[in-house]
Q: What sequence folds into this?
C-alpha cells in the first residue's frame, strides 16, 4: 500500500512537458497549439490534431503521423464528420497533398 501511494505521488509530482510528435524525418512538432482528438470510429485513423492558427493538421495513421499544412478549418471539420475518415483522408488530403496544396515546407 505504501509503495502504491509513493508511486502515485511520484507520478503526480513529475514535471509535465509539452507533448511532441515525431514525423519520422528528424522533425518533431510541438502540440501545445493543437487541439487533438483520439479517434475510435476509424480502423485507419487513430488521432487527429489541428491548429486553427497555423492551419496545420496532423493525422496519426497506424502509428505514424502525417503532416498537412494550409488546411482550412472547413476541411478539418469535413474530415471529423466524414462517414469514413480513411476514405476522406485518401481522397481529399492525400490527393490534394500530392499536387502540393497541403504540402508543408520548412523555411
A:
Amino acid at each position: 500500500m505504501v509503495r502504491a501511494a509513493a508511486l502515485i505521488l511520484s507520478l503526480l509530482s513529475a514535471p509535465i512537458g509539452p507533448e511532441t510528435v515525431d514525423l519520422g524525418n528528424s522533425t518533431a512538432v510541438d502540440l501545445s497549439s493543437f487541439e487533438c482528438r483520439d479517434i475510435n470510429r476509424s480502423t485507419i485513423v487513430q488521432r487527429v490534431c489541428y491548429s486553427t492558427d497555423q492551419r496545420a493538421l496532423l493525422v496519426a495513421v497506424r502509428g505514424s503521423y502525417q503532416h498537412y499544412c494550409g488546411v482550412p478549418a472547413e476541411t478539418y471539420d469535413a474530415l471529423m464528420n466524414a462517414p469514413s475518415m480513411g476514405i476522406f483522408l485518401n481522397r481529399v488530403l492525400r490527393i490534394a497533398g500530392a499536387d502540393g496544396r497541403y504540402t508543408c515546407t520548412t523555411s
Observations:
- The CA atoms of residues 38 and 79 lie 13 Å apart.
- Strands lie at 20-22, 28-30, 35-38, 45-51, 56-61, 64-69.
